[in-house]
Amino acid sequence: LTVLNAGRRYLKVEDLSGKVFVTSGLGGMSGAQAKAAVIAGCVGIIAEVDEAALLKRYKQGWLMEISNNLDHCIARLRDARKNKIALSLGYHGNVVDLWERLVYELDATGELLVDLGSDQTSCHNPFSGGYYPVQLSFEEAKQLLSTSPGKFRTLVQESLRRQVTAINRLADKGMFFWDYGNAFLLEAQRAGADVEKRGANKTEFRYPSYVQHIMG
């Protein structure tokens, strides 16, 4: 319902075939995002740093395909988008790399390859394993978390700023991004990312909450 209503509200379409939804997180309830994309008929690319979580969703049938290669992900995205094939593709990697690759494709080809975007990392708990920084591998980040939590926190906040910079660039070209109530925008704001709504008070964000804007 969230994905369908996002299409209705932001893209003004009932049919999401050929549309692309990019998000992250395949643990807990966020595993449903891949299934939702296929039910809605769109192309869903979901990033996950934890291979165990990714493989679990794949074996359960929530994901149609998995890949750890961004070149392959972009090629599959383009093909499914062109041919209007419903697809759920799990990217084993950091979502920041995925967002930045989409910006690269925009700059290189002029193509905006994503229509809808969100995030379901556990940003209510970003400094204790709910969000992993793009600068390190998953294993390296877990090690740093245990040995130097202060450094881990710094890298998380830097990663959040990079993620928002990429999202903002794509949103300026027409992608519609929403917050899933996972504190992503709040933690991004605390990290100094550009997420505040222009001309509004400090508690308002430039991107909407799915509760108020999509489900409400």
From TrEMBL:
Gene Ontology biological process terms, A to Z: L-histidine catabolic process
Pfam families: Urocanase
Full protein name: HUTU hydratase
Provenance organism: Casuarius casuarius
Top-level taxon in the UniProt lineage: Eukaryota
Family annotation (SUPFAM superfamilies): Urocanase
GO molecular function, one term: urocanate hydratase activity
Domain Urocanase Rossmann-like: 2-214
